[in-house]
Amino acid sequence: IGAGGRVITCRAAIAWTTNAPLTIEKVEVDPPKAGEVRIKIISSGICDTNKHILEGKDKVPFPAIWGHEGAGTVESIGEGVTRDKVLMFPLPECRECSSCLHPKSNFCLKERLVSISLTFFHPIYGTSRFTCRGRKIYHLYGTSTFTEYTVVHEIAVGKIDDDAPMDTVCILSCEVPTGFGAVFNIAKVRMFTPGSTCVVFGLGGIGSAVVMACKASGASRIIGVDIKEEKFPRARTLGVTDCLNPQKLKKPVQEVVVEMTGKGADFAFEAIGLIDTMVATLESCHPSYGVGVIIGLAPTNSQLIFDPMLLLSGRTLKGGALGNYKTRSCIPKMVTDYLQKKINLDPLITHTLPFESINKAFELLQGGHCIRCVLLF
């Protein structure tokens, strides 16, 4: 193992192709260049987006090191960079582009110019900092946290409190801000009087975070939708009042939601990433003022088609990445809130496994037995 300006040899989980287990290999990790940080990973969450890539729904190049929910410590830095205990973000914040400078936007545009970065929805694959068996290995979303060491651009890294529990806070890189921000920042549930009705499509990690935020916002009714009923008991403990399995209904789930709520839900959230559930989310909304929010990442090259009359009546369809939080500016503050017990992350982690059990973690996720699994290095 090297340090500073030397190449580091370490373990990483490499995806060589879709629909196959990841293999733990020895990789060489280059030292950081100007504006980059090399980080020792301490923990990484497994997001459903990684499952979609594994299943071939979201196209990325191979071989690659996945993972975008990571917490770690800075091992070495490139010129002009200073960092300590950190989170890594799949969406950077350059604080210079038109999006970063706008008060309502967080979708950084400068990442397209970063050599190792991948934009969140439109990957651009640049220079790799990983080598295995003599081959260059691709990064994922500019982070690649399924490795003992990674190289990240400094605009995608946020310094956090020295007291942060590193076995937990990694989920603040994606799961928590994506779910909480969908409610607080995008739908703005708090703008309505308490007693709102919400429907959440998908009760995985991000959907569970949405449920918690809806409850915190005073929603009186939260309808959870999922085809895996083993998720229902836990969802109810988080705040879901009604559970629906679309496969056991006699009519489309959106029709059932409209009947249950009178005219439709005040807010609807799609946390799965399927075109059909995105349309169902919009159709579940109240026709005059309902707000639908798309959170899930749809399969590559998907097209969303729906009747425009759904919008002309007054519904709103919105979207956002990482809950519209400016990552470096806002998410480290969420770590502080967690330390001060203002927010609770613990119910969102159901499994903790050693890094070498990564394929077991994917099996739990695919089987619906896991809300969020955290890998410890």
TrEMBL record:
Domain Alcohol dehydrogenase-like C-terminal: 205-333
InterPro entries linked to this entry: ADH-like_C, ADH-like_N, ADH_Zn_CS, GroES-like_sf, NAD(P)-bd_dom_sf
SUPFAM superfamilies: GroES-like (SSF50129), NAD(P)-binding Rossmann-fold domains (SSF51735)
Coiled coil residues, start to end: none
Keywords of the record: Cytoplasm, Metal-binding, NAD, Oxidoreductase, Zinc
Ranges where the Alcohol dehydrogenase-like N-terminal domain occurs: 34-160
GO molecular function: all-trans-retinol dehydrogenase (NAD+) activity; zinc ion binding
Record-linked Pfam families: ADH_N, ADH_zinc_N
Subcellular localization(s) per the UniProt record: Cytoplasm
Cofactor(s) needed by this chain: Zn(2+)
Sequence similarity: Belongs to the zinc-containing alcohol dehydrogenase family.
GO CC annotations on file: cytosol
Name under which the protein is recorded: Alcohol dehydrogenase
GO biological process: retinoic acid metabolic process; retinol metabolic process
Superkingdom, natural source: Eukaryota
